[in-house]
Structure formats: structure tokens, C-alpha cells
């Protein structure tokens, strides 16, 4: 997409505004499938927690993607978007047996990440195909909040508990269809990923009737110029060769599953915000925008960096600005960042805003959530309207006058 297209969309739909480029989502999907083209059976389960707008789900469905869901609500959204139950994979963490039973009743593949639920579910449903999430105790991820495979993580069943796990499976005569792992997001070193894969292969040897191995995802995307990213092509070459060798050893062509979220949608996303005020202090020039961490929390939550450009003045001389929001506490998107000269009323564009941006937004300070637009075939299509005051009041119940006066 070009700056002129984004400016036109900001004028048409208002700001703040999320925009997603369908062509970039498509090219990322094709890049991943091409990297693993040497694998006979490949399945991509889009991790919909990254961006769960129904229109995005439908776009990915049409590309051939399946879904990875982490809540029953995400499962229901996937079904609403036209996915069949067998195209949805349920990978929750710490949910109740009741929620797992609800999802099972919908016909969706279940992934279980703790011994307690595994034994309870297996005792009740020994013939139902189940996947097991293994914690490989491999540290990966760009931030402690997104590193989920280390030894102190709440996610998965420890590989050191494998004898206990096998005993539960044997005692219940469960049907184990797959083994799953996820080391964390923002994987920088593919050798670490390949090392974790060997742990998964070792665990898989304990189960004789597997249908698939799920390697999770966590592929890093570039957030700024010359940024490091996961070498998908190199990973595809090395892991495909090793996976095919394991299948030959196992005596069966298993399905190789990935569950990318950020990799597919991050670079496709743009967040547009208008500058409300340019404020000079004794040491800093602030650009205050019509948004805050209620709309884009990643910089405050993860310390993440989003490239910011002034698309209203793309050829302007660069100056140093701290870009801040309107939330009434620390609300900083960038500190002393070089950005084209900013004037009040300009539109700033935050790049890489497709993953974990709108999906983590809130109504903090009673602010409305922004609209979402999908740019497809050279046109912008509104896929979520701006919220209104009525949306804030929805589901709230005023006290009866007789109670309020007590």
C-alpha cells in the first residue's frame, strides 16, 4: 500500500483507524507454504488470537488456511467465518474441563496441556483423538511475556513428565493423534527451533498412532529497516528434510502443522492516528495523537518498536519527537524518534500493526475502539465500524431508582 491510499482511507473512515493489506497476507501465506513444499502433508493453522476479525478469517480460509483457536469464543468465531470443525484446532491454556467438553461437542480437534485434564478427559473419552502439548524447556522469544517453552513456563506438559504422561495414556487407553510444542514468539535462531524439534521427535516415538506433529510458530518479522527476521526459507529447507526423515523412521507420512499468527498478518497492518497537539517542553517535543495504549498496547506492554512515519509530510525534514497518547498515565509509543516534521492535524502511520494490536485493544478511559478496514483489490472495505456511545453502554445495567436512593 502507498501513503496516498492510507491518507485517503483516514479521510474516508476517520481516525484512529486500522488498515490491513490483503495482498501482504496472501504473499506471507504463500511464502510459508512454498518454504515447506517438500513436505507431503502440510497444514497451516492461523493463530487467530493475533487478529480475529471475521473478514480476515474468511480471507485466510479462502487461501487454504485452517485455524488455531485458544478459547471457545474463538472456535465459535471460526465456525461463524465458515470453517468446518475439522479445520479448527483448539490449543487452550489452563481452561476448565467444561470448556474442553464444549469444544469437543462441536467436533473440533483438542490439544491438552496439563496432566490433570488429560487424565480426566481420557478417562471419559478414550476413543476421541487428542493432541498433547509438550513443553520442550527451550527458551525462545523476544520478550519474557512471549517466551513460553522455558522450564518455568505455565504452558505445556514438561518433557521430564513424559513417563507420567505415557502412564496416563496407557491406563486410559487414550487415542493420541498428535504432539505439539510452542517455544515462544520472535524466534531469532532457527538452530534453537531445530533443537526443540528434536525433543518433539523424541517425545513422538512414545506414541504409535500419531497423525500429525504441530511445531507451533513464533516466527519473527522485521519491525524496522534492516531488522532481523526468521529465515523461513532456511528453516523450511532444514526442517523439511529432518521431518521427512522422521516420517520414514516412524513408518508413516505424518502431517506437519504450523500455527503462525504474527508472521501472516503483522506486516499487513497499519495503524493511523491524527496528531492532536505538538507540545514543546524544556527537553522534549511531544506529538500527542488521538489514540493511546487502549488501541495499541504493545509498546507499553512488550517494549515493542513500531516504525512511525508522518504520511501527511513524507518528504519533510526529520526531527526528534516523542509520540504519546491521550491516556491519563504514561502512554508513550516512541521516545526521541526521528520522524518527518509534524504539524497538528497530520496523520501518523504505525507499521506492523496487524498482529496483537486491535485484538488487545480496550475501552480504557471509556474511549471507543477504532474501525478496521481491509484493503483488497485496490479498494478499502470497512470490516468493523468505529464504536459509539451505545457500544459503551451495551450490557451495562443501571440501578433501579429505588435501589440507587438507599
In short:
With 406 residues, the protein is of the alpha/beta class.
Would you kindly provide a written description of the structure presented here, covering whatever features stand out?
The protein is of the alpha/beta class. The chain has two domains: about 20-260, Alanine racemase (TIM Barrel, Alpha-Beta Barrel); about 265-385, Lyase, Ornithine Decarboxylase, Chain A, domain 1, CATH 2.40.37.10. It has 13 helices and 18 strands. It has helices at about 5-15, 20-35, 55-65, 70-80, 95-105, 115-125, 160-170, 190-205, 230-250, 260-265, 300, 390-395, 400-405; strands at about 15-20, 40-45, 65-70, 90, 110, 130-135, 155-160, 175-180, 210-215, 255-260, 270-280, 285-290, 310, 320-325, 330-340, 345-350, 370-375, 380-385. Strands 1, 11, 12, 13, 14, 15, 16, 17 and 18 form a nine-stranded mixed beta sheet that branches. It starts with a helix and ends with a helix. About 40% of the residues are buried. GO terms for molecular function: diaminopimelate decarboxylase activity; pyridoxal phosphate binding. Belongs to the Orn/Lys/Arg decarboxylase class-II family. LysA subfamily.
Amino acid at each position: 500500500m502507498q501513503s496516498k491510499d492510507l491518507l485517503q482511507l483516514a479521510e474516508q473512515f476517520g481516525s484512529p483507524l486500522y488498515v490491513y493489506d490483503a495482498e501482504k497476507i496472501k504473499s506471507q501465506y504463500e511464502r510459508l507454504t512454498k518454504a515447506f513444499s517438500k513436505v507431503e502433508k502440510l497444514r497451516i493453522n492461523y493463530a487467530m488470537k493475533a487478529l480475529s476479525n471475521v473478514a480476515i478469517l474468511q480471507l485466510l480460509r479462502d487461501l487454504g488456511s485452517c485455524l488455531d483457536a485458544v478459547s471457545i469464543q474463538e472456535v465459535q468465531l471460526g465456525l461463524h467465518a465458515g470453517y468446518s470443525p475439522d479445520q479448527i484446532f483448539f490449543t487452550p491454556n489452563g481452561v476448565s474441563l467444561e470448556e474442553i467438553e464444549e469444544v469437543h461437542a462441536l467436533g473440533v480437534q483438542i490439544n491438552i496441556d496439563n496432566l490433570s485434564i488429560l487424565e480426566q478427559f481420557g478417562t471419559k473419552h478414550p476413543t476421541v483423538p487428542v493432541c498433547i502439548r509438550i513443553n520442550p524447556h527451550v527458551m525462545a522469544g523476544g520478550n519474557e511475556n512471549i517466551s513460553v517453552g522455558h522450564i518455568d513456563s505455565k504452558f505445556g506438559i514438561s518433557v521430564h513428565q513424559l513417563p507420567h504422561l505415557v502412564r496416563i495414556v496407557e491406563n486410559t487407553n487414550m487415542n493420541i493423534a498428535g504432539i505439539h510444542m510452542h517455544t515462544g514468539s520472535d524466534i531469532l535462531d532457527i538452530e534453537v527451533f531445530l533443537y526443540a524439534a528434536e525433543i518433539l521427535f523424541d517425545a513422538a516415538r512414545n506414541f504409535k498412532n500419531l497423525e500429525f506433529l504441530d511445531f507451533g510458530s513464533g516466527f519473527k518479522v522485521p519491525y524496522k529497516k534492516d531488522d532481523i527476521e526468521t529465515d523461513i526459507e532456511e528453516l523450511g529447507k532444514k526442517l523439511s528434510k529432518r521431518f521427512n526423515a522422521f516420517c520414514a523412521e516412524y513408518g508413516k507420512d505424518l502431517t506437519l502443522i504450523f500455527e503462525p499468527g504474527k508472521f501472516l498478518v503483522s506486516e499487513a497492518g497499519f495503524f493511523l492516528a491524527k496528531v492532536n497537539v505538538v507540545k514543546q517542553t524544556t527537553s522534549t517535543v511531544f506529538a500527542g495523537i488521538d489514540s493511546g495504549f487502549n488501541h495499541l498496547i504493545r509498546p507499553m506492554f512488550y517494549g515493542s518498536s513500531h516504525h512511525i512515519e508522518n504520511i501527511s509530510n513524507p518528504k519533510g525534514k526529520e526531527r526528534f519527537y516523542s509520540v504519546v497518547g491521550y491516556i491519563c498515565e504514561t502512554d508513550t509509543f516512541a521516545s526521541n524518534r526521528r520522524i518527518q516534521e509534524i504539524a497538528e492535524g497530520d496523520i501518523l502511520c504505525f507499521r506492523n500493526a496487524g498482529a496483537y494490536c486491535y485484538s488487545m485493544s480496550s475501552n480504557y478511559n471509556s474511549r471507543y475502539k477504532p474501525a478496521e478496514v481491509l484493503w483488497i483489490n485496490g479498494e478499502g472495505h470497512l470490516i468493523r465500524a468505529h464504536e459509539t456511545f451505545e457500544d459503551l453502554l451495551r450490557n451495562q445495567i443501571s440501578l433501579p431508582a429505588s435501589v440507587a436512593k438507599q
